[in-house]
TrEMBL record:
GO biological process: ergosterol biosynthetic process
Pathway recorded for this protein: Steroid biosynthesis; zymosterol biosynthesis; zymosterol from lanosterol: step 2/6
GO CC terms in record: endoplasmic reticulum membrane
GO MF term list: Delta14-sterol reductase activity
UniProt keywords, alphabetically: Lipid biosynthesis, Lipid metabolism, Membrane, NADP, Oxidoreductase, Steroid biosynthesis, Steroid metabolism, Sterol biosynthesis, Sterol metabolism, Transmembrane, Transmembrane helix
Residue spans crossing the bilayer: 75-95, 116-134, 146-167, 232-251, 271-289, 301-320
Protein name: Delta(14)-sterol reductase ERG24
Organism field: Funneliformis mosseae
The keyword Lipid metabolism belongs to this UniProt entry's keyword annotation: yes
EC number of the protein: 1.3.1.70
Family indicated by similarity: Belongs to the ERG4/ERG24 family.
Catalytic function, reaction form: 4,4-dimethyl-5alpha-cholesta-8,24-dien-3beta-ol + NADP(+) = 4,4-dimethyl-5alpha-cholesta-8,14,24-trien-3beta-ol + NADPH + H(+)
Length: 433
């Protein structure tokens, strides 16, 4: 496909409340990941002592003292985390995989991506399985014991990666994201300036999106189950459900690796601090919150609760995967005879929009499936504490906001065709609402 000349228009509208919102995100979100972990202990989530410290100005100053901040760093944990990243990069290089094409960029080109995420995940799971068989669960306790140190190192790495991609985005010939070229350093750094930063054929955004966070999430969940086993001598059913559901979600995302190529993160958003921190720290260390909670405060489930939780997971997953696969297959080849059952509308932009099946029910029906699954992951924690429900609350906000951002993008792309589409598919996320 011949390249068109690169045109990088200036971004004229801010999202996330512009530079002020970007600065707030970059300071409060790392603080929040610490608070959510430091504040959830065997004696309660949140612990009374944390609330007292945060509400008392003198104790608050002490809380953020240099001594306390230094104690967040841990050399052994940092070496382990960097070793983990190097292992994942080597796995990407060394494990064979098919090269698949991404969607067409606005310069007319299509990039190629190596698809070996599933194999890399299997290798990681084999290494963990063999370690448990040979040495038992104890080596995994390192992760629980050095949790804060690992998290601190991940935060530093996420900032360094974001600084690197921001700097290289100024090299000549780079295709910038339409939303990340405002000229404001703080905003562009946070939202992501370059669309597809690469080192040779190593695509940094694609790698970060599906490797360190997703793999880290699964490893930390297994480590939390090991911690529970260490404390109780057995693993509760609630813990088994949480790590199975979330493990399934992670393995499923790498099994369907090419489907990520049609998500908003890859097609539209630049790669900056938000996706770097979002994947390397937020996803890896915050998404295992329910497993960490259950390791500290085990909960026992009734049969009725188990049936409800299993049903929510099955319904949510069916919608999520069904919708995502349908759109991905359609975007890859709308003329595929297997997709003959789909009705679609043509648009002046050249792209077609599905108007039947999952995509005829609501414009982001896939978000609904994902959110239903989120409930199945939190309910095993019971109702004693609010902390494990952080995920369903945060995720609702993220998905509603994401829906607004995607509508904005589609309105710009499809213009009056988008209004026509909205008249056919009337609902946003929940059919009938
Ligand atoms: N667990 C987590 O923390 C998170 C999970 N997710 C999940 O990631 C998945 C992907 O999300 P996201 O990328 O936001 O959104 P979508 O997968 O819904 O992708 C949106 C894009 O799809 C295309 N599209 C929209 N409607 C149609 C249609 N009717 N027919 C064909 N194409 C259409 C448009 O792009 P175009 O027309 O330009 O091709 C649109 O910009 C979701 O399932 C979401 O739940 C997302 C965020 C966080
Ligand atoms: C608060 C903050 C910094 C938010 C960043 C948001 C990120 C955590 C999420 C943005 C989009 C994501 C996706 C997934 C994980 C969370 C982030 C990175 C995803 C990789 C999860 C697995 C799915 O199967 C998926 C591949 C569809 C999905 C893609 C979007």
């Amino acid at each position: 496909m011949p390249s068109k000349a690169i045109h990088n228009p200036k971004t004229t509208e801010y999202e996330f409340l512009g530079p002020i919102g970007a600065s707030l995100m970059m300071t409060t979100l790392p603080t929040l990941v610490y608070l959510l972990h430091l504040g959830c202990q065997p004696e309660g989530c949140p612990t009374v002592s944390l609330i007292e410290q945060l509400l008392n100005p003198q104790q608050l100053v002490q809380f953020f003292s240099a001594e306390n901040i230094v104690s967040l760093f841990d050399l052994q944990a940092s070496i382990a985390f960097l070793g983990y990243l190097i292992y994942l990069i080597l796995a990407w290089y060394l494990i064979p995989g098919r090269w698949v094409e991404g969607t067409q960029l606005r310069n007319g080109r299509k990039l190629k991506y190596k698809e070996n995420g599933f194999r890399s995940m299997l290798l990681t799971l084999c290494i963990i399985g063999c370690t448990i068989l040979i040495k038992g669960h104890e080596p995994l306790l390192f992760i629980f014991d050095h949790f804060i140190g690992l998290m601190s190192c991940s935060i530093i790495v996420s900032f360094l990666v974001a600084i690197y991609v921001y700097l290289i985005s100024f090299q000549e010939g780079k295709l910038l994201a339409l939303g990340g070229n405002s000229g404001n350093i703080i905003y562009d750094f946070m939202i992501g300036r370059e669309l597809n930063p690469r080192i040779g054929n190593f695509d940094i955004k694609y790698f970060v999106e599906l490797r360190p966070g997703i793999t880290g999430w699964i490893i930390i969940n297994i480590a939390m189950a090991a911690k529970q086993y260490h404390e109780l001598g057995y693993i509760t059913l609630g813990m088994i459900l949480v790590i199975t559901f979330q493990g399934w979600y992670c393995i499923d995302s790498v099994y369907n690796e090419p489907a990520v190529l049609t998500t908003m993160d890859i097609t539209t958003d630049g790669f900056g601090w938000m996706l770097s921190f979002g994947n390397i720290t937020w996803l890896a260390f915050l998404y295992p919150l329910q497993a960490r909670y259950l390791a500290l405060r085990p909960n026992h489930l009734s049969w009725m609760e188990i049936v409800i939780i299993l049903s929510l997971q099955a319904i949510g997953y069916g919608i999520f995967r069904g919708a995502n696969n349908e759109k991905n297959a359609f975007r890859n080849n709308a003329n595929d005879p297997k997709l003959k059952y789909l009705k679609y509308m043509t648009t002046e932009s050249g792209s077609k929009l599905i108007i039947s099946s999952w995509w005829g029910k609501a414009r982001h029906i896939n978000y609904l499936g994902d959110w239903i699954m989120a409930w199945a992951w939190c309910l095993p924690c019971g109702f004693d504490d609010i902390f494990p429900y952080f995920y369903v609350i945060y995720f609702a906000v993220l998905l509603v906001h994401r829906e607004l951002r995607d509508e904005e993008k589609c309105k710009k792309k499809y213009k009056k065709d988008w209004d026509r589409y909205c008249n056919i598919v009337r609902y946003k996320i929940i059919p009938g609402k």
